[in-house]
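Pipeline run #58 for the internal structure catalog. This entry was flagged by the ingest filter as a single-chain record with no existing model, so it goes straight to prediction. Upstream metadata was stripped on purpose; only the residue string is passed forward. Reviewer on rotation: M.T. Logging verbosity set to normal.
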Amino acid sequence: MDILLRLLVAIGFALLVTAAAALVLHLVFRALARRERWAAALSRRTKHPTRATLLVALLWTAFTTSVPDDLRRFPWRDDVSHVFLIAMIGVGCWLACELAIFLESLGLHRYRVDVPDNRVARRVRTQVLIIRRLTVAVLVIIAVGAILLTFPGVEAAGASVLASAGLLSVIAGLAAQSMLGNVFAGMQLAFSGSIRVDDVVVVEGQWGRIEEITLTYVVVHLWDDRRFVLPSTYFTSTPFENWTRTSSELLGAVEFDLDWRVSPSEMRLELDRILATSTIWDGRTKVLQVTDAVGGFVRVRILVTAPDAGGLFDLRCYVREEMVEWMQRQHPEALPLQRMQLTETTTTPRARRGPRSENDSQLFGEGDERSALFTGPIRTSGIRPDEVPPDSEDQHR
């Protein structure tokens, strides 16, 4: 009964100390947050795991100091201590993961992605996100291994596993070939710079931005708010378009098929007026050229530039709309026309065939009598004797 009372008192004292320590840490970080921005972020990130770690540690200490180490009277003491050890490893891993994430995120504040030229910031952010996931995975694996080592008999199981490591490694390698390939591909994407978070890409005919890069897959945010999830190996083995790899500035074309009566010089003046009133055009390039003039149409191409892909699409639509309205209003004759020429055709009577020549009825160049031998009826009986040729009579004789 005395031990139970001591245990309850120790647990109450541990809860009181945990609450006091949490209050002190809160006040300290609150004071630091008035001068340093990182203090507020650290307090938000580590508040819950810190309190959990303090609570588990103090409760474990209260239990071990209150319950004597007497296996005969308290055979369950080691089991409870084992549970506290596992809980301590778990909350310690939680705290270590939050601290690692905070330290990795602390370096991202210097690299802003909400500025026009954010190529370096996007590259650093991509690499930090991959390192963050690797760090969390390694810490979790270490924690799980530490928990397993606390159980008796794990060493023997480990020895038996190592004895058959050759066979297991082959089986694991074959089973995890695809997963390991995606993991290494994700690390290659993070540090090669082929794609970064917020890059504008065209994959499988779809236009979108890189939203997330993990160790095994990449999420592309398409223009219509769909998400295109691709394995990491796709970007290391399949060609794709990256519109913002070196810079976000792009050049685009607007093409028209117009009538031959169009005036390119007046279109250039109108293009200058349109771009002067646009807030999307970055001022680098404006070109109007006649690129083709065959097949009844004149093809006019306009080249303009914008600071990013989204702005370029809006600028092309704006230039196209303004040019169409200007031609409808000022030069309707320049609109494309389909010309057709209708001709009246007269039928001539068919020439009559001339009189049939004598040779037309001949067969093999012979006369009518010779032809009758081949085309006339063949008589097989009733031949008179005087009609038999002389040669035939000699043969009969």
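catalog note: The two ends are 158 Å apart (CA to CA).
catalog note: Residues 392-397 have pLDDT under 50 and may be disordered.
status: ready for reviewer M.T.
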